[in-house]
Amino acid sequence: MGAPPTPVTAGVPLRPNPGVPPAGRALTRPRRRLLAAAAALVALAAVGAGSLLDLRTPTPRPADAPAGEFSATRAYEDVQVIAARSHVAGSPANDQVRAHVEQQLRGLGLETAVQDTVAPEAGQLSGAAGGATVARVRNVVARLPGTDPTGRVFLVAHYDSVQTGPGGNDDAAGTSAILEVARALSTGPRPRNDIVFVLTDAEEACLCGAAAFAASHPLAADGGVVLNLEARGSTGPVIMFETSKNNAKLVDVFGRAAPHPVGTSFAVEIYRALPNDTDFTAFLDQKFVGLNSAYIDGGAIYHTPLDTPAAMDRSSLQQHGDNALGLAREFGRTDLTDLRSGYDATYFPVPGGLVRYPGWLVLPLAVLAVLAVAALGWLTRRSGRASTGRLAAGFGLALVPIVVAPVAAQLLWLAITAIRPGYAELLDPYRPIWYRLAVLALAAAILFTWYALVRRRIGPAALAVGGLAWLALLGVLLAVAVPGGAYLTTLPALAGALGGLVALRTRQTGPWPVVAVTAAAAVGVVILLPTVVLLFPALGMAMGGVAALVAVLLGLTALPVVDLLHPQAGGQRGLVALRARRLAVLPAGAAALAAVVLAGVGLAVDRFDAAHPAPTHLMYALDAGTGQARWLSRESDPQPWTDGYVDGVASVADDFPGLGDGELRAGPAQAANLPAPKLDVLADTSAGGERTLRLRLTPQRAVRLATLHVDTATATVLRAEVAGRQVPVEPRAGRWGFGLVFHAPPAEGVEVTLTLRPIAAQVALRAMDASDGLDALPGFRPRPPAVGVVGSHSSEMLAVARTYPL
Ligand SMILES: [Zn+2]
Question: Could you tell me the distance, in angstroms and rounded to a whole number, from the CA of residue 159 to the centre of ligand 1?
Fold first, then answer.
């Protein structure tokens, strides 16, 4: 047996396998080889464990912690007050939260005031439908004056919550952390720079509070450093996931001053590609620089009634506060006049700190990695470990697991959601750990199976070089397209190539080849393992394929170590080799079995119950003009509870332009006795072919938002003013070609002035408002315990509309 007589593989003429792997001719005896494998794997496991331990959140500090420190226990007392119930912008509950926040800051002796204004939305909100969006906002702003300011540091979080939940994490975490940081800072010596605490309103609706502060608050006039604190889940490490552009100096302060600096330049790139927004967006277009941080694991409760104080992992709050306090102190003493660099930094966490290097190094490093892998390939061929043909085959075949593993992970999730359709409405399952492990086991199974199949024919050396070549090439691609992510493959490829070169040079000398390839693989583990672990919560199981891809890349960097589990290529002969080869199939089989078992455990453990309800989405829309009412749902595959309300598909864009375009599930409903918003004409003048209507839109009940749309077949809107503020008149698609959305309208109503060019004798206006809560509606049956509410901005919305011809 031994080297198989394999003249041709995949059309590539090959010489008999010459392959002694880089990892050692000294390891020809199976027992010594297994021993080396065990040692290498234990070392890698230790390195991996170290990297993951580094992501651990700190123990919450007690209520009697020293005054200058951040105590999650003290901050949590505020969490319980802030998130006692849902407090959407404009609601009486939100007034109470604001009063509490204001009182706490005043109690610290800080100059505190409420900015009360009407402001437009910041940036482009993914969920924004209906047209120009404005809100009445009331931001709480407090200042700790600096001794010799070079600028201002802004600590920002939003105190409002969504309508569907109390916001125990989102964003009671940020708000309470800022209150505790303010307390800690005001007890110590005054900082050099001004520290401004900004608790914003209406973040959930439209980022309008932050937009108002950034654009028009006197303290914001000269810009400064913004530290935004968020939570998109209930647990996990706090990740610094977004920065302003040219961030090198900011990242340097972050690495130096945050006690638990978890953040990667790759996260910045991912976040830019996601449709999420936070208050930080409002500061990005202005004269601010800054950092945005959040914890994001436990995403199943995001924006749902389950986002309660009790759901909060207080060690995540401790990390949020520790980092915010450390950064506030450091930025409080730094000269803020020159915080912009000419470039972005690449950065990522390693045990004990944050690695960072300038962005202009990214492309040279990527090219260096390609050259190093090319040198390894050339030396591998020269040393007789692989022919050119085998190297080419190794390169081609290494693409197989890179493609197959992510596809398989996506298929696995498709299968799981087919069994449990409710998952489609969740950001992540309630207990995702089993599914995450299943995806990793699946990736491992694919990698091991692939390796066991192709190793005999191609040889370990050619496959190892082929894998590194893909990593190096991906590094160049990333360096050009998403530079912040290039380190993920460039550095492991570079390390792998150097490890391989060392192994080739030291092949006769005892343990050194194994040490070299293990050290190289350790670099891959340090960089890629935390990435895999952080990617799962960041993207959710629906995009588990991305984590599977990174896991396979990690596996490719460790191929020479994986190879030690296989019999020496070209080594032993006869029965021993046969037995060893059979043993080599074990890892693949074990991983495949683990994938199936873990997915099964996930399905068995993560069932919907009262504490983990199946998410459902329901709205109610009443046309007060016709008396027709409808139940509506955004669920694509309605849950049984929702099915009791909806029986077909409908588009409501013509009747309820404020609910957005697109198809919804719909069903008939009893008409409730609810008034539509009133539209009063305050003035109606015409001049020069233009008609100017001064209107007052007044909701007749407690509502979250009011909308006004114009039928552009009856008039063209030339100009529009809301509460004295000009709004854009960009045309919308469909019948209601102009629209505006006003969040948190005051009880006395909103004044709107429209300048029109009439087309028909009368202009048709559609007024709608929306409140929360369906409980009191006729025909509504309360959800049974295991049925919950989807965390979306339109869940439980009750809309009433009517048309006014004027
Ligand atoms: Zn939110």
Answer: 10
Question: Distance (Å, rounded) from C-alpha 223 to C-alpha 738?
Answer: 34
Q: How far is the CA of 566 from the centre of ligand 1 (A)?
A: 50
Nearest CA among 289, 272, 172, 307 for reference residue 229: 172
Distances (CA, A) of 185 to 191, 332, 334: 8, 10, 16
Q: DSSP for 716-729?
A: EEEEEEETTEEE--
Q: Give CA separation, 66 vs 63, 189, 326, in Å.
A: 9, 15, 15
Assess contact for 430 and 420: CB atoms under 8 A.
Answer: no
Could you tell me which residues come within 8 angstroms of residue 559 by beta carbon, excluding any fewer than 6 positions away? 451, 460, 463, 464, 467
Question: How far, in Å, CA of 106 to CA of 115, rounded?
Answer: 15
763 C-alpha to ligand 1 centroid (Å): 38
What pTM did the predictor assign? Answer: 0.92
Cα 276 to middle of ligand 1, angstroms? 10
Q: How far, in Å, from the CA of 240 to the mean position of ligand 1? A: 17
69 with 544: CB under 8 angstroms?
Answer: no
**Alpha-carbon distance 400 to 382, whole Å?**
26
Please report the pLDDT score of residue 18 as a whole number: 41
Ligand 1 mean position, distance from CA 102 (Å): 21
Give the integer Cα–Cα distance in Å for 759 and 716: 7
CA–CA distance, 446 with 591 (Å, rounded to integer): 8
The answer to whether 68 and 187 are in contact (CB under 8 A) is yes
CA distances from 617 to 657, 782, 796 (A): 19, 13, 7
Spacing, Cα 567 to ligand 1 middle (Å): 54
> In Å, how far from its chain's centre is CA 407?
21
Which phi and psi angles does 458 have, rounded to 5°?
A: -95, -30
**Predicted pLDDT of residue 28:** 57
pLDDT of residue 725: 87
- Helices assigned H by DSSP within 482-511: 487-505
pLDDT digits (tens, 9 = 90+) for 182-207: 999 999 899 999 999 999 999 999 99
Instruction: Read off the tokens for 681.
Output: 């004409």
* Distance in angstroms (rounded) separating the CA atoms of residues 543 and 541: 5
Of the candidates 323, 336, 344, 301, the one whose C-alpha atom is nearest the C-alpha of residue 254 is 323
Q: Ligand 1 mean position to 673 CA, how many Å?
A: 32
Tally of residues, the chain: 806
CA 277 to ligand 1 center in whole angstroms: 9
The 3-state DSSP class for residue 415 equals helix
Judging by beta carbons within 10 Å of its beta carbon (0-12, 13-18, 19+), is residue 212 exposed, middle or buried? buried
Task: Write out the two tokens for 342.
Answer: 């000419």
Q: Say how many Å lie between the CA of residue 281 and the centre of ligand 1.
A: 14
**What residues of the chain score a pLDDT lower than 50?**
1-26, 124-128
Position of tokens 């600028």? Answer: 151
| Spacing, Cα 170 to ligand 1 middle (Å) | 5
Mapping DSSP to helix (H, G, I), strand (E, B) and coil, where does residue 484 land? helix
- 509: Cα within 13 Å, side-chain hemisphere: 8
Helix (H, G, I), strand (E, B) or coil at 176: helix
CA quadruple 676, 677, 678, 680: dihedral, nearest 10: -140
CA 477 to chain centroid: 23
Position 509, amino acid:
T
Bond prior to 307 in cis (omega within 30° of 0): no
Decide the pairing of beta strands 690-698 and 8-9: unpaired
